[in-house]
Amino acid sequence: MLKHFLFDLDGVIVDTARFHFLSWRKLVSAWGIDLTEEFNEKLKGVSRTECLHIILNAYHKKLSNEEFEQALHQKNEDFLYYVNQMTEADILEGVLDFLKFAKANGHKIALASSSKNAKIILEKIGLTHYFDAIIDGNQITNTKPDPEIFFTAAKAIGASPENCVVFEDAIAGVEAGKSAGMEVIGIGDASILTKADIVVKSFLELKS
Ligand code: B16
Ligand code: MG
């Protein structure tokens, strides 16, 4: 049976995970919080609002509704500053060849990203036309690790979950893909993405 591919964006296609980290770190440093890379693993794959809740809960910090909205806005402004400088050169190694291979061999390709900036990012790096469906944070009610985004992406390309392969760099995303009954290939560190079916460092390791 032909497999179809569901791609996470940040940390899989491009290294915007780094930009999210830098933007959150700048925001919370003004509150005297030193955000570590280790803590940042909890923020990968989850929505912007949920990220802020996770930070505030962990550091016992309270914000008014207005301050909360302002913090989200500021974080996103800083993130977009980095995004606006992106080009095709920012596509992670091996990704473009894999997309070309998938297209040429009839595999359907969908994006399943929690980011509300996903479409802007795909345009900046010139990959929009590779995707048969683009599901992002604007279309989803429940953020990863809930499987909603992967079910929605599979449906959009007319694929059943057991025929979908998910590419994910986040603990929450791997959990979401497995909860959806899909095969999950982790991109990154095997000691972190322990629930993935296999973990590779980059698409260069995937023989198409
Ligand atoms: P935004 P992904 C996720 O994208 C990021 O991993 C996560 O760190 C971020 O908080 C989330 O998007 C929301 O992004 O603030 O741009 O809406 O990994 O699911 O592609
Ligand atoms: Mg990701």
Task: Summarize the structure in words.
Helix 1 crosses helix 4. With 208 residues, the protein is an alpha/beta fold. It folds into 2 domains: 4-14 and 88-205, HAD superfamily/HAD-like (Rossmann fold), CATH 3.40.50; 17-83, Putative phosphatase, domain 2 (DNA polymerase, domain 1), CATH 1.10.150.240. It has helices at 16-29, 37-40, 48-58, 65-83, 95-104, 118-124, 148-156, 171-179, and strands at residues 4-7, 109-112, 133-135, 164-168, 183-187, 198-200. It has a 6-stranded parallel sheet. It is globular. The two termini are 16 Å apart. The mean pLDDT is 96. It binds 1,6-di-O-phosphono-beta-D-glucopyranose and magnesium ion. Residues 8-11, 17, 20, 43-48, 51, 76, 113-117, 137, 170 line the site of 1,6-di-O-phosphono-beta-D-glucopyranose. 1,6-di-O-phosphono-beta-D-glucopyranose is lined by residues 8-11, 17, 20, 43-48, 51, 76, 113-117, 137, 170.
